[in-house]
């Protein structure tokens, strides 16, 4: 419950990070196989909430619909052919993903995608994001960097992250159920964890107006890098 309170707070401040923070902290304690089912319901509820606000949903679905349609298929591929085959190695993969994401953020890396390349890159991002979701249970890489590189304004970016994360969460839930990895006990815990996750989101949103977003993001990335290093070495 404390993990989801913290993860919800992070999401409330920066608009993302609930599954990343939650699965990283829970994996470090319980292992990634036990962590993945717990994040499904809190992540889905908070992401649907985020994706429903902003007024750009129809336009975003038209623009990124092909990527959203691809994600469930490649999530199943990533889980079935990679995670199931070598679950012990997945903690190392998660650690590497966290380190990669943190390193890009700390270096203030910024990419720009020309409009003529979007038709090709959008399906490719959907493929990669689904694979990463199936393997690690995190949804951030590479979709967030791609959306930033397209130059979406803040409201569109936050809403699209909510939409994309909702699709990824639903896809992960279906994959876990199909593979018998979503036990009833985990569902109960996951459902109860919605409450601290929402409480954290509300508190984080209030805290956002008092903190410098750049400073908070910097320390968040440092924490993710340390967690990634721990998982990479421990795995």
Features:
235 residues, mainly alpha, 12 helices, globular
Helix content: over 70%
Q: Which structural category fits the helices and strands?
A: mainly alpha
**Helix count?**
12
What is the succession of H and E elements?
Answer: HHHHHHHHHHHH
| Distance linking N and C termini | 24 Å
User: Whole-number radius of gyration?
Assistant: 16 Å
**Beta-strand fraction estimate:** under 5%
**Poorly predicted sequence stretches spanning 5 or more consecutive residues:** none
What is the overall shape?
globular
What value does the average pLDDT take?
87
Task: Sketch the major β-sheet.
Answer: none
Task: Tell me how many strands there are.
Answer: 0
Question: Could you describe the 3D structure shown?
Answer:
The structure is a single chain. Helices cover 80% and strands 0% of the residues. It has helices at residues 2-14, 18-30, 32-38, 40-52, 57-83, 90-106, 118-136, 143-149, 154-178, 184-192, 194-208, 213-234.
Which helices and strands, and how do they pair?
Layout: H1 2-14, H2 18-30, H3 32-38, H4 40-52, H5 57-83, H6 90-106, H7 118-136, H8 143-149, H9 154-178, H10 184-192, H11 194-208, H12 213-234
